[in-house]
Amino acid sequence: MPSIQTSTNAMPQAVRSFSPALMPGVPRGASTSALKGTLDDLLQVMGADAADLQRAANVPMTLRRVHAKAQLFHEGQPSEAIYIVRAGTFKVYHTDEEGYEHVVGFPAQGDVMALDALNMPHHPTAATALEESSVYLIVRRDFQSLCMNAPGFSRALHMASSRAVKRATDLTHVMAAVAAEARLARFLLQHSERMASDGLSPRHFYLRMGRRDLASNLGVASETISRSFTMLASWGLLKVACREVEILDMDGLRACARSTRRQTDNTADEARAAQKLTH
Amino acid sequence: MPSIQTSTNAMPQAVRSFSPALMPGVPRGASTSALKGTLDDLLQVMGADAADLQRAANVPMTLRRVHAKAQLFHEGQPSEAIYIVRAGTFKVYHTDEEGYEHVVGFPAQGDVMALDALNMPHHPTAATALEESSVYLIVRRDFQSLCMNAPGFSRALHMASSRAVKRATDLTHVMAAVAAEARLARFLLQHSERMASDGLSPRHFYLRMGRRDLASNLGVASETISRSFTMLASWGLLKVACREVEILDMDGLRACARSTRRQTDNTADEARAAQKLTH
DNA sequence: CGGATACTTGATGAGAATCAACCCGGGTGG
DNA sequence: CCACCCGGGTTGATTCTCATCAAGTATCCG
């Protein structure tokens, strides 16, 4: 396993013991460590399988640090690279002609950004870091040669593309729910699954994005997100303190997320009943 | 340029002269022609650039015919292949636990299906043909060797993945619009652009999907789609006869699509005004 | 012709967008 | 140190769109 020294390298494994004061997490420790990356570390971050990993050469790769609230690339900028998140979280968004910005996703560790700009001259979206982050940067020229020479990279990229398509599709599933609480519930469940697959606690986590960005991502008003949070909390499904979320009743949350169409009386009671009996 | 004999091979170039009776298009002509495909034809369908095309070998590829309303793969089925649309149109959808089916997209010529199943054991979605169609089928084993040996294929696949991500993102943009007419307008505009990029008329086309599927894709009720169609038509933006759509005022339609937030009076008047002055 | 399916149109109720006020923590500057 | 502002978050009141139910029309297929 390759070792890399980066201040934002490892997520805190013990999530349940984080202190809210630490969470904004801007300059924890000295941020002066030089950033060095290797191809095999990149492949590992991307989730390549073992066969590809051991074939990977130990060539250096450029690892760029992105400060909180800094933007990695902006919309309309000529697209000359793709970015793989090494650590941290981003928000990818598109601002339409009226200035309204629609958040497309929140890429985190292992996600590839700007994939959609590969066959376009300009970026269709912008990306800003929600916290201290670092990304592998692969410019077009290196991209070509890597696909040719590094056997595992092309495969890993295909897999990452596959995940990206899956993610975007999942987002449409979230937005397909008409009820606001259902959308939020689906989002939280997806986030929970992602946490679990990253080896973190699936029931207790800290959201890196604000209500506004979350609302934009889910396609509702930010006030509605606020209300939905208090709704879910009042039903005993979760406990929420600003951006810190603890899921109390996973099955109840799933039941709430299931209701594609509106819950008139029966389905609402069913959801509440499900939450009652599991509790 | 490779030549392939398939009854559904070429889209009718003269779109403005199609007759509605022909459109359901079920068994137009003898459907007995043997299906043969080649790698370079596949690459051309996928939109590979010239450099890759001339390097492509003329190896045979399996081309599968899919009848209208037949399903190419169903949800939960073990994923063993990807599919590239050679001709026709599909609907890709996901049915949730309540039986409600959410249409994720309408892949057409050159689109790759089941990309999201590449890194999963089972298909997360199902696909059924909306008309007589044909697809290139690439099983996992061939997929691996193709990526290794055919230099252009891996590149073409990366480009196709890029487009797929872009498509999915665009869908979220469509669904982000709150007003139903805006969603429909955005969908029609995207469809128009796609028509144009396929060399067909961007102002006059025939929708292959029903209101129900369209509504599901856009995240609204089918009745609302119906109403939105009549709304847009009554504003003089387009002329619609069942599934045949003719865009009369492209700029007006764009103005309608722009309104992210609801149009109270002024924006509605603006849209109508824009439509007036262009007409 | 009968049944089914697709599409349209109408009436009604409910949920959410919008406007607005308020609370709170953190930063800034006096 | 306090006053102040500011952005983020919560909550309330009101308007309005859309989902839903329902009925009607048209079209296709057997």
- Low-confidence segments of chain A, ≥5 residues, pLDDT <50? 1-33, 262-279
Helix run count of chain A:
9
- Report the helical percentage of chain A: 25-40%
Span between termini of chain A: 42 Å
Strand content of chain A: 15-25%
Structural class designation of chain A: alpha+beta
**How would you sum up the global shape of chain A?**
globular
Strand order of the largest sheet of chain A: 3-10-5-8
* Average pLDDT of chain A: 83
How would you classify the quaternary structure?
homodimer
Q: Which protein chains make the most extensive interface, counting residues with beta carbons within 8 Å of the other chain's beta carbons? A: A-B, 43 and 43 residues
Overall strand count of chain A: 13
Key structural traits:
279 residues; alpha+beta; 4-stranded antiparallel sheet; 9 helices; disordered C terminus; DNA-binding
Explained architecture:
The structure is a homodimer of 279-residue chains. By secondary structure, chain A is an alpha+beta fold. Chain A has 9 helices and 13 strands. In chain A, the strands form 4 sheets. In chain A, strands 3-10-5-8 form a 4-stranded antiparallel sheet. In chain A, strand 12 and strand 13 (244-247) form a beta hairpin. The longest helix of chain A is centred in the middle third of the chain and has 26 residues, at 151-176. The radius of gyration of chain A is 20 Å and the shape is globular. The N and C termini of chain A lie far apart (42 Å). The A-B interface holds A 94, 96-98, 100, 102, 104, 115-120, 124-125, 147-148, 151, 154-155, 157-159, 161-166, 168-169, 171-173, 175-176, 178, 216, 219, 258-261 and B 94, 96-98, 100, 102, 104, 115-120, 124-125, 147-148, 151, 154-155, 157-159, 161-166, 168-169, 171-173, 175-176, 178, 216, 219, 258-261. Chain B binds a DNA duplex (30 and 30 nucleotides) through helix 7.
